[in-house]
Amino acid sequence: MNWPENKDFAFTIFDDTDNARLENVRPVYDFIHELGFRTTKSVWPSKGNDTPIFGGDTCEDPGYAEWLVELRDKGFEIAYHMNTYHSSTRAEIIEGLERFHSIFGHYPESMANHTGCADDIYWGANRLSGLNKFVYNFFTGFRNSARFFGHVEGSKYFWGDICREFIRYCRNFVFRDINTLKQCPFMPYHDPQREYVNGWFASSDGAHLEEFNDLLKEDNQDRLEAESGCCIVYTHFGCGFYEDGKLHPGFTRLMERLSRKNGWYVPVKQLLDHLKEQNGGHLITNKERKQLERRWLMDKLRHAKFGKRQKKWT
Does the predicted TM-score (pTM) go above 0.85? Predict the structure, then answer.
């Protein structure tokens, strides 16, 4: 892959907003901004009325919203992590997207589903097809076979047509490999079996601090560079990166090392736009879909931790 500006590889982060509050994520973004990274920060447009699955600040918190606008103006992408921290109806989703537009001047262009929201789109077992879907259901005890309805016409949670109208890219499969593009070489891609999502992208697993630091360890950084690869990290900056008034030293050391490399450090949307220009907007084939789903299942099984950790199988 040839990267713009004669860069050797591409790297970015999609930060799910779970547990994010102004006081625990602003220092993280101040730090990566100073290093020259421009990444993607997801948000919840609305403050929910029910018990959160995982809570945090929303765009209805004035100070937090003001800071998000400042972050956007510094070159970070503001993305969508569903309407709020629990399930939302179609009417609530529309209201939330209009709030997003009023704050940022545009609708979100990339998104990720949020754990447990009934309005998640093509989530749970709906991510997979055929035998791969059965394998997934078997290992999750069919727990996620009928929980997500964002794509189901007639459901009060349906918003698929709105997603297709406004959002370009939706995250799907997450792998342990730092080179995301190696695992999903045709991203972003459109899947005709999932018509309401314009483009899907994969990510590399840095969900929490421990996984993030393990993903970005020195030999992985060097391999990403040697392979001229592309890494889109899935993480939660609100979970342990800044605690007790300081950034985690392992995190700062690894990010400082990475920043000294000749990487292309742009937000998710900009990176995916570039990849789409290269692949012409890939239409996934049945064979490619089966192989991608199987690759993800095998990655999950190799690193499976059952019991409470099994929740990650959503």
Answer: yes
